[in-house]
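Quiz preparation item.
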């Protein structure tokens, strides 16, 4: 098995390849200039990395959730507006559920719509993680949110948002 013996720095620019106590080859050393200076940022030359695949699926999830909550808002408004014409045991029985559905649909749709407009920052990664966890509260969303959560917490996604 050949061994590399690096030379002493001031004596030679060659590596000596030794196999069973015989010199079998000499390799030149490529000199590398190592500086401890940071590379200056070039504002116009920054290349953005390609987003991980989970970001696409996350945006699809946010669009679906925004649609569901906006539909809940519309149903709530319709129930509140037409509560008199709905045949129930007591008049006005659908007014309160309509107001509650409308309020919940409106307030929950805002964060999911806002998720499309957030910058790529570390705090935005946490914001998106919270939205995935909101989906974990529903049994209907578990088949979507569990794999999404597993892939979302991987290091390459965190790096993408730094």
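Solution:
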């Amino acid at each position: 098995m050949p061994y590399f013996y690096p030379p002493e720095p001031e004596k030679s620019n060659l590596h000596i390849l030794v196999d069973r106590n015989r010199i079998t080859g000499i390799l030149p050393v490529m000199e590398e200039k190592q500086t401890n200076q940071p590379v200056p940022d070039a504002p116009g030359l920054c290349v953005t990395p390609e987003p991980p695949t989970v970001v696409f699926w996350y945006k699809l999830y946010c669009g679906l959730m925004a649609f569901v909550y906006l539909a809940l808002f519309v149903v709530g408004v319709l129930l509140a507006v037409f509560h008199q014409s709905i045949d129930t045991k007591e008049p006005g029985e659908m007014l309160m559920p309509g107001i509650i559905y409308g309020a919940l649909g409106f307030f929950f749709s805002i964060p999911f719509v806002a998720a499309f407009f957030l910058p790529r920052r570390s705090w935005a990664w946490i914001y998106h993680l919270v939205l995935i966890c909101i989906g974990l509260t529903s049994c209907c969303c578990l088949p979507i949110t569990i794999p999404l959560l597993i892939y979302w917490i991987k290091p390459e996604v965190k790096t993408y948002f730094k």
